[in-house]
Amino acid sequence: MRRGKGHVAGNCNSYAQMDSVSTGYLFVSCIFTHLVGVRQIKTVDGRESRRKERIELLEERDRTEEDARDPSESKDPNVRRNEDESYSEDYEANVTKMRQAIVDMADVNEKSIFLDHLQARVSLFCVDGLTDRASMDQNIIKPLLDWGNSDQEEEIPKGDALRDVVIRQVMLVAETEHAQDVKYSLQKVLFGSIVLLIEGTSGVLILGSSKGKTRGVEEPLSELVLRDPRISTPL
C-alpha cells in the first residue's frame, strides 16, 4: 500500500514538472513572437524614417546650393530655382535632374527603354521593395513595349498628344498623374510610385504601382500553443 502511494506521488511530481516545462516553453514562445514583431515594426518604421530623412536631405541640399550660387548667374533667383526644381521638354535634362535627386539613394532603380517605332527613349524610376515589380512589368513595361515597337500606320503623336495617348490607351494602371516638380515626383517614388519619362514630352508621368502595404506586421495565421498533457490515471 505504501508503494502504491509513492507511485501516485511520483506521478504527481512528474505531471508538475511537465506542467512547469510546458509553461516555460509557452512563455519563451510568447517572448520570441513579441520580439520578432517589435523587430519588424522597427524595420518598417526605420524605412519610413529614412524616406523622410532623404526628403529633408534633398531640401537641405537645395538650400545649400542656392546659398552658394553666384547671384550674377541670374537676375531673378526665383527663375533659376524654378528651372532647377521643374522638368522641361528636354528629355536628357529631365533624366539628369532625376538622377541628381536620387544620387544618395541606392535603392532607387532606373530602367531605360528604346521604342523603335516611336524612335523615342523612355526611363522609369522606382524603389525596390516598395514598387510592385510584377504589376510594373505586366501593366506598364509590356504594354509600352508592345505599343512602342509595333508597326503602326497612323501618324505618331508628338508632345502632349503622345503623353495623352500613353495615359489613355497604353498604360494599364488606374492611377496616373502628370507632374512638373522634381521634388514632388521624388516623394512619390519614395512611397512606391513609378516615375516615367518619355522623350518628346514635357514633365513626367507618375504611375501608381505600389504594393499597397506600408506595414508588414500582422496577426499570425497560426500560433504554436503548448498545452498541458491530457493524461489521467486512476488513483
Sum this structure up briefly.
The protein is α+β, with helices and mostly antiparallel strands.
Tally of strands: 5
Main β-sheet, spatial strand arrangement: 1-2-4-5-3
Q: Percent of residues in helical segments?
A: 40-55%
How large a portion of the residues is in β-strands, by DSSP E? 5-15%
Total separate domains: 2
Mean pLDDT over the residues = 75
Largest sheet: 5 strands, antiparallel
What structural class do you assign from the helix and strand content? alpha+beta
Number of H/I helices: 6
Series of secondary-structure elements, N-terminal to C-terminal: HHHEEHHEHEE
Radius of gyration in whole Å, from Cα? 30 Å
Distance between the termini: 12 Å
Shape: flat
Contiguous low-pLDDT stretches (5 residues minimum) are 74-81, 213-224
Pfam families: GerA (PF03323)
Keywords: Membrane
Please, could you describe this protein's structure?
With 235 residues, the chain is α+β, with helices and mostly antiparallel strands. The protein folds into two domains: 1-85; 89-207, no CATH class. The protein is 53% helix and 12% strand. The protein is built from six helices and five strands, in the order αααββααβαββ. Strand 4 (194-198) and strand 5 form a beta hairpin. The longest helix is centred in the first third of the chain and has 67 residues, at 2-68.
